[in-house]
């Protein structure tokens, strides 16, 4: 009889009284809030764990690529450029995860500020704004920050330092003495033409590679120093992610 079952939807044709009962007392309401808080905490912690995993992958990639590139003079500087691309991919993945984490973190913080803080130490008249905000988010979940803001925030937290390390390693690689395939040292960079020759990447001449790297790090610098229009959680304390 599976074909006769209707698909799962958000709407139902059943009368309202056939739905699950709502809390009928203050004790039941408190229990519901406590269990909901635990659920949101678990969901927030799950997305936080996903963010940490991506950051750990990025750190591992940086360490591995540095080891491969700087271990021998014959290794190509393109390994570090490839590492920059991998780090960018992980940054974009982490930014997407961070947008989901931000939604659940906001709900948890609203509960803590609006309800639990008021229970522990009442401050002024109780307000229902926090519950109204959470209810609206539950009825129609929406992201609280743009993808661009999420990328910039993760860049400022962790990834700017990884990019800086890769840039320093790349600069060291293209200016240090190189070894030919025959095992002879070719000497350090002494002129602009030597630097351009060292930065060549396959069919791409060195000056194009330098321009692309400069443009890319210009974007990284912009994202690292960009400030958001709204303070978000920073308006409610210094502890944030």
Explain the layout of strands and helices.
Layout: H1 26-70, H2 78-120, H3 129-139, H4 147-175, E1 178-179, E2 185-187, H5 192-198, H6 206-225
Antiparallel strand pairs: 1-2
How would you explain this protein's 3D organization?
Keywords: Membrane, Transmembrane, Transmembrane helix. The chain crosses the membrane at residues 78-95, 158-175, 195-220. It comes from Sinorhizobium kostiense. This protein has 241 residues and is mainly alpha-helical. Helices cover 64% and strands 2% of the residues. The protein has six helices and two strands, in the order H-H-H-H-E-E-H-H. It has helices at residues 26-70, 78-120, 129-139, 147-175, 192-198, 206-225, and strands at residues 178-179, 185-187. The chain has a two-stranded antiparallel ribbon with strand order 1-2. Helix 2 packs antiparallel against helix 4 (147-175). The chain is elongated. The model has no long low-confidence stretch (mean pLDDT 84).
Summarize this structure as a short list of keywords or feature phrases.
241 residues, mainly alpha, two-stranded antiparallel ribbon, 2% strand, elongated
Helix content: 55-70%
Radius of gyration: 26 Å
Ends: how far apart? 49 Å
Q: Name the poorly predicted regions.
A: none
Please report the total strand number as a whole number: 2
Q: Biggest sheet, in brief?
A: 2 strands, antiparallel
Q: Which structural class should the secondary elements be placed in?
A: mainly alpha
What is the H-and-E element order?
A: HHHHEEHH
The mean pLDDT is 84
Oligomer: single chain
Q: What gross morphology would you assign?
A: elongated
Pfam family, one: DUF2270
Transmembrane segments: 78-95, 158-175, 195-220
Keywords: Membrane, Transmembrane, Transmembrane helix
InterPro entries: UCP01500
